[in-house]
Amino acid sequence: MRVAVAGGTGLIGALVVRKLTAAGHEPAVLARSSGVDLTTGAGLGGKLDGCEEVVDVTNVMAVRRKPAVGFFAAATRNLLDAAATAGARHVITLSIVGVDDVDLGYYFGKRKQEELVRNGPVPWTILRATQFHEFPEPLVDGARGAFVVVPQELSQPVSADEVASALAAQVGQKPGGYVRPLAGPEQLQMADMARRLVKARGSRKIVLPVRLPGAVGKAMTGGALLPREDYAQGERTFAEYLRRVANRLS
After folding, report:
1. CA distance 33 to 206
2. If I label 80, which of 6, 46, 61, 236 is the partner at 20 to 30 A Cα–Cα?
3. Segments in the chain below pLDDT 70
4. What is the rounded distance in angstroms from the CA atom of residue 102 to the CA atom of residue 96?
5. DSSP for 118-179?
6. What is the reported pTM?
7. Closest residue by Cα to residue 109 from 59, 144, 149, 49
8. Which DSSP symbol is given to 207?
9. Residue 199 vs residues 25, 81, 193, 241, 243: alpha-carbon distances, Å
10. How far apart are CA 204 and CA 171, in angstroms?
């Protein structure tokens, strides 16, 4: 079937597109590079024609609450309206484990996205996942000088490829509301993940863990980002991801 993938050029989106193609579906990528701006709706007209389902993995690099909420509110409304107009019967949205329990600005944006999907015009499925193995990469890449500042955070990281597989597996299924969240096989500190990534890259950067202030920091260090309910457990470990990183550099 024809399936729209919103954010189909990002980390998860590109993997979802690949898996849908391998399964015999026809992905329609919704991204700025394909002429679509979800925040304004520009370019959306006709892009969802013939799409029976929509996978939403849109994302924004926004830490503050106002821009995060603004992005997800606008993009989600426009996407849902276009999906309903096109007659799509199912929207599948990626969200985050612990999104209700950590008052980060970005998480407020994801909460808004979930709210709009739940109350929107298209039957829905929401999959929450923990942080990906790749999560430390932008922190390391964006560091200036010798130091990498990383938030103190207890996580249960999961393979991005396994997240994409779980999303693609929902295509063709009945809308399931909140399905079992997805988490990795081990609990790790984000600072340790960053140090191991730096080492795998052969870098000399120094990782500096910083505890965020107040309730946010307490929640992140206290396990609020870990699954509390029954969840699906991925198989791939962070060590496997690091081996792939090292192999790319060799």
Report:
1. 35
2. 61
3. none
4. 11
5. HTSSS-EEEEEE--BTTTHHHHHHT--TTEEEEE--EE--B-HHHHHHHHHHHTTSPP-EEP
6. 0.95
7. 59
8. E
9. 39, 46, 10, 13, 11
10. 43
